[in-house]
């Protein structure tokens, strides 16, 4: 199967200028790739750098060194060095991301929050809303909530809006940071189904799942992030 | 992705005598892109904005602009007539203080209609209908069309100023602290409105703000300024979530959550 | 200056038409420039005149600079030749220029006016000199002189329509009735001084030269003969002049500008020509309005 994402010799540290410039190494020499139709799960204890890796792949965190190559519109883009405009275009068309928390926008309804990534890609609003409705139904979000801004929703409700928003497009790569953390068993199973569908469609998925059951169900392979820990190397 | 930047800023510097207003600023702005310029007061944000928008002549540097016909023009070498025409058709400028951008003594309708009349629209009924339409879009009730902005609240005035600027379908809008003088609750509404309009109209915008939350909500990219220099520049969420420079870290840490 | 000048020429022999030759030359230069750029306000070094501002010092300086011994001068104020203002300006020029004066529009070579254009169509060779209080049409919305000059220079006249828009928005129609802005020769927007808009069409393609002098504001502008003068308006609110229901009560003239005259304290009133010379001329030629006919019947 085609390789969608290649991470090569990536290093990441944080320099805390407000704390005497101490340098906090996070990960070193990260190497892996994700193929189309595959779901790789990042494993390892909390604080080891799993979320940081996803954020680097998404362009949200800078990298110190290395390459993050994605296949975008038939060419290879290195997220590590791409200019902001290219990163945004990759996010719009190729690379999706479901974070742990929904960043709410005041006064925009849940339905429109979900539909937005499609609208941003030029899909007409009505069509985008239809797709959004289908996903919100699938995720069992009460219909009464669709027209309301999600700011006042419970954690689980917000999470489902967030998942729907992340899954609505046909991005070829999806990054998932604990999307099932605050969901009940029923909705966790829905997400597992949705991931299976994405795999079937050839999407490359990379995720963090704490829930054992979910992890077992979706992971084609578990990548232990511990191996990239600079602390381990020092020890 | 279009293949030409809308605006190309090349090494723009402005000195006020010995003092630096802004120094050696370069960047490209692409169609549909929103750039936030952040920094504390006195860091050179407004100087830079005024230079780029030709309201101020820089000491050195150049700015190229891609006109509607695709030709690229050097803004500082345009005739004043052309530049002013550009400013009231293809550009917008939203001032922090609405009184600086509005005609306070004429009606809301005339404020919105002025640019239409300036470009030769001579049909009262059409001008009024367009003005009324724009008032609705910025959430001002149509029945306020004949009231002067003096009778409006701060938030309404700011929304009116936005309508007045957008009525000619500009491609580029400059905003200087657009939420600056407003109450927090009013700010949220305005931001939301601006965000919606920018998205719907596919506008390019340069927004000066000291408020990182505004930058987070509205911009794709941001530039951090300090003492007239751009010290950090990148994707907005990257700069806010993984600030590299000491000053940017200080800025980000000094607010609770953005 | 020759000592043999007959003494009955008095002041006229000292400095013809009051102003010294240097000043007149300066003002003539401004006038020539104004004629060359129709509707453009030319600055000039306005002099103190022996009359207060508001009495037409701008118009008087223009007249003084163009008048010659052979000219025949007519002075009107709101259409009348016999108001204090008109009488004293006429007297002033008789004294300082020793020129012939008239009340007949046709006989005059120079007509100085405040707030009217004669009803009798002007002819080639005649000069109409307007007294102007505020020359800048853009001032009401843009008080900064630097900015209004720039707006003229760049032909940015949207603001004029903003004012007309406001008029319609608040009154349902363009309610401005005098000093109604015009565009001259397709270029400069101009304030025609506080003449009623009824007179605006007379400025268009006039056979006469029209000169405007603003003394306090030190500006001169002009409309050369046969120049296009268009009153600003909207497509759906076209420019219209005032219409009067009745003809002049004295001479029966229609399509002229009428003034209201109160006859008694019981609400009796009549409408008569504001142009007194025109009215008299018509009556001399046998025209009679309703009021005149009634008087004659009573006699
Ligand atoms: N924006 C940031 N600034 C500074 N340090 C950070 C930032 N994000 C993460 N870190 C640090 O990087 C390390 C890895 O964190 P994270 O990627 O969240 O781990 P995980 O997701 O595996 O729990 C932690 O020490 C964390 O405190
Ligand atoms: Mg994490
Ligand atoms: Zn009469």
UniProtKB/TrEMBL annotation, chain A:
MF-aspect GO terms: alpha-D-ribose 1-methylphosphonate 5-triphosphate synthase activity
Keyword presence, NAD: no
A UniProt-annotated Pfam family: ABC_tran
InterPro entries in alphabetical order: AAA+_ATPase, ABC_transporter-like_ATP-bd, ABC_transporter-like_CS, CP_lyase_PhnL, P-loop_NTPase
Keywords: ATP-binding, Nucleotide-binding, Transferase
Domain ABC transporter: 5-235
EC number: 2.7.8.37
Catalytic EC class: transferase
Lineage top rank: taxon: Bacteria
Similarity annotation: Belongs to the ABC transporter superfamily.
UniProt name for this protein: Alpha-D-ribose 1-methylphosphonate 5-triphosphate synthase subunit PhnL
From TrEMBL, chain B:
A GO molecular-function descriptor: ATP binding
Keywords noted in UniProt: ATP-binding, Nucleotide-binding
Top-level division of the source organism's lineage: Bacteria
Pfam families associated with the record: ABC_tran
Species this protein is from: Pseudorhizobium tarimense
Family matches, as InterPro entries: AAA+_ATPase, ABC_transporter-like_ATP-bd, ABC_transporter-like_CS, P-loop_NTPase, PhnK
SUPFAM superfamilies: P-loop containing nucleoside triphosphate hydrolases (SSF52540)
Designated name of the protein: Phosphonate transport system ATP-binding protein
Gene3D superfamilies: P-loop containing nucleotide triphosphate hydrolases (3.40.50.300)
Family: Belongs to the ABC transporter superfamily.
The keyword Phosphoprotein is annotated on this UniProt entry: no
Domain ABC transporter: 7-252
TrEMBL record, chain C:
Pfam family, one: PhnJ
Keyword Metal-binding: yes
Ranges annotated as spanning the membrane: none
Keyword 4Fe-4S: yes
GO molecular function: alpha-D-ribose 1-methylphosphonate 5-phosphate C-P-lyase activity
EC number from the UniProt entry: 4.7.1.1
Family: Belongs to the PhnJ family.
Protein name: Alpha-D-ribose 1-methylphosphonate 5-phosphate C-P lyase
Source species: Pseudorhizobium tarimense
């Amino acid at each position: 199967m085609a390789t969608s994402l290649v991470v090569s010799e990536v290093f990441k540290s944080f320099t805390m200028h407000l704390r005497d410039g101490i340098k906090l190494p996070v990960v070193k020499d990260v190497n892996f790739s994700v193929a189309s139709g595959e779901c790789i799960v990042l494993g390892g204890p909390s604080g080891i750098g799993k979320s940081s890796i996803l954020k680097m792949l998404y362009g949200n965190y800078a990298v110190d060194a290395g390459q993050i190559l994605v296949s975008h519109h038939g060419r290879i883009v290195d997220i590590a060095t791409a200019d902001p405009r290219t990163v945004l275009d990759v996010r719009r068309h190729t690379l999706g991301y479901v974070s742990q928390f929904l960043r709410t926008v005041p006064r925009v309804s849940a339905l429109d929050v979900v539909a937005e990534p499609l609208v941003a890609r030029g899909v007409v609003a009505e069509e985008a809303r239809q797709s959004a409705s289908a996903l919100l139904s699938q995720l069992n979000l009460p219909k009464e909530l669709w027209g309301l801004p999600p700011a006042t929703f419970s954690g689980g409700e917000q999470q489902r809006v967030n998942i729907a928003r992340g899954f609505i497009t046909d991005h070829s790569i999806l990054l998932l940071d604990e999307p099932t953390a605050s969901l009940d068993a029923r909705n966790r199973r829905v997400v597992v189904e949705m991931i299976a569908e994405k795999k079937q469609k050839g999407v490359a998925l990379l995720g963090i799942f704490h829930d054992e059951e979910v992890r077992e169900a979706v992971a084609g392979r578990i990548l232990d992030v511990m191996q990239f820990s600079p602390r381990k190397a020092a020890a | 992705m279009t293949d030409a930047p809308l605006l190309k800023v090349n090494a723009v510097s402005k000195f006020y005598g010995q003092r630096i207003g802004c120094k050696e600023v370069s960047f490209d702005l692409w169609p549909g892109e929103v750039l936030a310029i952040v920094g504390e007061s006195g860091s050179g944000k407004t100087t830079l904005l005024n230079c780029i928008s030709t309201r101020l002549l820089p000491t050195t540097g150049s700015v190229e602009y891609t006109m509607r016909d695709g030709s690229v023009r050097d803004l500082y070498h345009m005739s004043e007539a052309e530049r002013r025409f550009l400013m009231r058709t293809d550009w917008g400028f939203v001032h922090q203080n609405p009184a600086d951008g509005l005609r306070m003594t004429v009606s809301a309708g005339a404020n919105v209609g002025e640019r239409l009349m300036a470009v030769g629209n001579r049909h009262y009924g059409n001008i009024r209908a367009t003005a009324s339409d724009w008032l609705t879009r910025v959430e001002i009730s149509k029945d306020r069309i004949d009231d002067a902005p003096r009778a409006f609240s701060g938030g309404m005035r700011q929304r009116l100023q936005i309508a007045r600027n957008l009525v000619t379908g500009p491609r580029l809008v400059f905003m200087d602290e657009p939420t600056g003088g407003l109450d927090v609750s009013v700010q949220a509404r305005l931001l939301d409105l601006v965000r919606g309009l920018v998205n719907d109209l596919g506008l390019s915008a340069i927004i000066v703000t000291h408020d990182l939350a505004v930058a987070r909500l509205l911009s794709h990219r941001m530039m951090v300024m300090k003492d007239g220099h751009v010290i950090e520049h990148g994707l907005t969420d990257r700069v806010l979530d993984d600030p590299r420079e000491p000053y940017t870290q200080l800025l980000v840490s000094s607010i609770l959550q953005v | 200056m020759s000592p043999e000048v007959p003494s009955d020429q008095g002041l006229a022999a000292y400095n013809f038409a009051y102003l010294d030759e240097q000043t007149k030359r300066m003002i003539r230069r401004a006038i020539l420039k104004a004629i060359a750029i129709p509707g453009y306000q030319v600055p000039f070094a306005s002099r103190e005149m022996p009359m207060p501002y508001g009495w037409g010092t701008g118009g008087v300086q223009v007249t003084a600079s163009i008048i010659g011994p052979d000219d025949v001068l007519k002075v009107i104020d709101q259409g009348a030749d016999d108001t204090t203002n008109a009488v004293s300006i006429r007297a002033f020029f008789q004294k300082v220029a020793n020129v012939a004066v008239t009340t007949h529009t046709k006989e005059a070579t120079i007509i100085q006016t405040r707030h009217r254009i004669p009803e009798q169509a002007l002819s080639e060779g005649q000069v109409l000199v307007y007294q102007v209080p505020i020359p800048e049409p853009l001032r009401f919305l843009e008080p900064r002189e630097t900015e209004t000059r720039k707006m003229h220079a760049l032909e940015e006249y949207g603001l004029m329509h903003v004012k007309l828009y406001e008029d319609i928005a608040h009154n349902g129609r363009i309610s401005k009735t005098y000093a109604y802005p015009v565009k001259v020769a397709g270029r400069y927007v101009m304030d025609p001084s506080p003449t009623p808009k009824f007179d605006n069409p007379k400025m268009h393609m006039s056979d006469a030269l029209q000169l405007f002098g603003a003394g306090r504001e030190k500006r001169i502008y002009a409309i050369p003969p046969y120049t296009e003068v268009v009153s600003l308006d909207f497509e759906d609110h076209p420019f219209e002049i005032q219409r009067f229901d009745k003809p002049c009560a004295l001479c029966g003239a229609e399509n002229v500008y009428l003034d209201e005259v109160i006859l008694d304290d019981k609400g009796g009133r009549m409408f008569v020509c504001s142009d007194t010379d025109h009215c008299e001329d018509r009556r001399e030629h046998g025209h009679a309005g309703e009021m005149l006919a009634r008087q004659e019947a009573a006699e």
